[in-house]
Amino acid sequence: MTDREDIDMLAAEYVLGTLEPAQRQSVAARREREPEIDAAITDWEMRLSPLNAQYDAVSPSRDLFASIRSRIETAGQNVSANIASLSEVASLKRRVKMWRSGALGAGAIAASLIIAVLATDIATPVQDGPFVAVFHRDDTQPAFVMTIDLDTRAVTIRPVEASVPEGKTYQLWIKSDQSGAVPQSLGLLQNASVATTKNLGQFDPAMLRTATFGISLEPEGGSPTGQPTGPAIHGRLISVEH
Amino acid sequence: MTTTRDLEKLLGQSINGDMDAFERLYHATSAKLFGVVLRILKNRAQSEDALQDIYVRIWQKAGDFQPGRASIITWMATIARNRAIDIVRRQRPESDIEDAEIEILVSHDTVFDEVVLADEVRQLEYCLDGLEDDRQQIVRLAYLEGWSRAELAERFAQPVGTIKTWLHRSLRQLKECLGS
What global pTM score does this model have? Predict the structure, then answer.
């Protein structure tokens, strides 16, 4: 059996659910750093998902959403607590709060491979200055925190819990309606253990406000195709409303 | 009836932190997702715990959804199924509900439009029908009920290695039949 067939069967059984727990966990972890496995899993999900039609709907207890809401709010506070040790956060939180209060209800972000941040209605009066986004690795652990100062158009990415697999590098992307459908590279995060600052002077601040950002894991030297090829780490605005 | 487009809109609003939109998304989809989890875990309390994890995850991963790749309900059901399989593979909960009881609880108040999926459903069913009877059954039991290789081995009185071989052959045959 070739490696490719191995991977395909591993992905198929992962989706089917029949892998042993340890193997299942290992596939889930490999999926994060091996695009080939991730793609094979997605393909198998597509092939087998029509079986979902066989699942009958059953109503859960009526009050369940209240628990979900409170867990989401607690998780948001934990994230805030995790990054509270980083410098500037107190003032950032204050500014984000101000920004958020004016920004809720703004238009939906175009969903895309890479996601994220800073959606607001351009017409909403927004104070320029730092904005903050958190890129999550998993449910609660932030991997990167990104701040943008719209006055100087400087973006700073601080790693919180990011490690770089050997032979890989993180790459930052931006996508907006104005710049077309495909993400544009903003360059590599050469050293994932320290903060990286990039100047986005070439972009209009109004465009930056509505753009989406993403960080993907790429081969050393960056994406070979000019488009994100590896698993992306996604960011969203942290909840600062306590 | 809530359309796929309505659900996508609610998810988009959730990305922006709109909890009310997320609650509407929950009410439109939770019965389907609960149906997935309950069928696999067969334990009501554990299924409700799992459902909470699942919606917290959906909230956090909302930005990952790519329209055009999978329908939103497929994307959500995949998250739900994955979570249920993770739980059942670690330790199958003590069953406190039978399939027959689940059937009685079925909510016929379909809140979203599954019609678009009809072609894909027919195609997969056609390909499943092409498998030998017991092979077809093991694929269905694994996918729909979350059976492990060991549980399938016991039911079909075969060594685990044979079940693995059957699974791989069946999956390859399905892939070929589906033409991708």
Answer: 0.65
